[in-house]
């Protein structure tokens, strides 16, 4: 049983549960560069958690540690109450963590539908050999995966582009397809690296609405990196602020907005 006494209720009445993920004293070095310096923070069940900070602050590196793309030099990653051993990214994915990338990473020549099907990989049970021997079983599995993907296509309102090669889509729609591929894995924790970067105002509004709907309708916990402060303030329950690899703030949007260190280091400077 989840201990709800650890949780809290948001201003808009959503119930946030206990701790899902805990980063404990994470340090990450690349040769002489220290990308992350001794950072600790938690992510709670059902929460929308933002990570903000200037370019080069170490935000993407932090998401890469959570997703298993980078192994921290020091510190521990705890997930659902136990310390995570060193894992490959696909093993982390199998634990129910999916992500999108700062630079879109889709198969440009493949259709929206096929790109989203690749998001089902971690859930596929039949191996190639099994598929050869038990054709019927594999076909049944294939159609179940297709059904799950079609539901997400409806949810994201991208029916009209389901057969279109993603390389031909405008940027904002590609970002939406990438979100769709992550959702196809039916993650418990969704990691979004700058989901709205490079979008126009209308595209940002659409993406914001989808992020809120994913959290609300699927109960998905979300950690996102975002530069647009307005978006962060509107979307997130709690915010971690990073600067030069260090954590300089952590709290509700209002708390970090009024934190002098944050104002000095981040809000005071332009990022455009
Ligand atoms: N794979 C890597 N190899 C070497 N240095 C890296 C690597 N990834 C990130 N860094 C460095 O770590 C620092 C933080 O980068 P990053 O996490 O991308 O910041 P942010 O996402 O906040 O802009 C930067 O100095 C960057 O050059
Ligand atoms: Mg980044």
TrEMBL record:
Residues 21-269 form the ABC transporter domain. One of its GO terms (molecular function) is ATP hydrolysis activity. It is an enzyme of class 3 (hydrolase). This is Sulfate/thiosulfate import ATP-binding protein CysA. PROSITE patterns: ABC_TRANSPORTER_2. It comes from the Bacteria. InterPro entries: AAA+_ATPase, ABC_AA/LPS_Transport, ABC_transporter-like_ATP-bd, BCA_ABC_TP_C, P-loop_NTPase. Keywords: ATP-binding, Hydrolase, Nucleotide-binding, Transport. The keyword Nucleotide-binding applies. GO terms for cellular component: plasma membrane. The lineage of its organism: Bacteria, Pseudomonadati, Pseudomonadota, Alphaproteobacteria, Rhodobacterales. Its EC number is 3.6.3.25.
């Amino acid at each position: 049983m989840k201990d709800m006494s650890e949780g809290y209720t948001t201003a808009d009445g959503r119930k946030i549960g206990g701790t899902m993920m805990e980063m404990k004293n994470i340090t990450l070095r690349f040769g002489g560069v220290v990308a992350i310096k001794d950072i600790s923070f938690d992510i709670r069940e059902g929460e929308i958690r933002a990570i903000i900070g200037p370019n080069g602050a170490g935000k993407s590196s932090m998401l890469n540690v959570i997703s298993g793309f980078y192994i921290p030099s020091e510190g521990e990653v705890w997930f659902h109450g136990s310390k995570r051993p060193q894992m490959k990214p696909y093993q982390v994915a199998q634990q129910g963590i999916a992500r999108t990338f700062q630079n879109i990473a889709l198969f440009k020549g493949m259709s929206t539908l096929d790109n989203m099907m690749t998001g089902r990989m971690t859930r596929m049970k039949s191996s190639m050999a099994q598929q050869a021997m038990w054709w019927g079983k594999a076909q049944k599995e294939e159609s179940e995966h297709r059904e799950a993907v079609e539901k997400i296509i409806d949810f994201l309102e991208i029916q009209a582009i389901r057969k279109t090669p993603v390389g031909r889509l405008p940027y904002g729609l590609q970002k939406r397809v990438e979100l769709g591929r992550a959702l196809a894995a039916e993650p418990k924790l969704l990691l979004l690296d700058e989901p709205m970067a490079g979008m126009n105002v209308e595209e940002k509004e659409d993406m914001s609405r989808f992020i809120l709907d994913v959290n609300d309708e699927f109960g998905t916990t979300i950690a996102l990196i975002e530069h647009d402060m307005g978006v962060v303030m509107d979307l997130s329950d709690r915010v971690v602020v990073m600067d030069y690899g260090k954590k300089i703030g952590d709290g509700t949007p209002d708390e970090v907005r009024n934190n002098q260190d944050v104002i000095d280091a981040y809000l005071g400077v332009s990022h455009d």
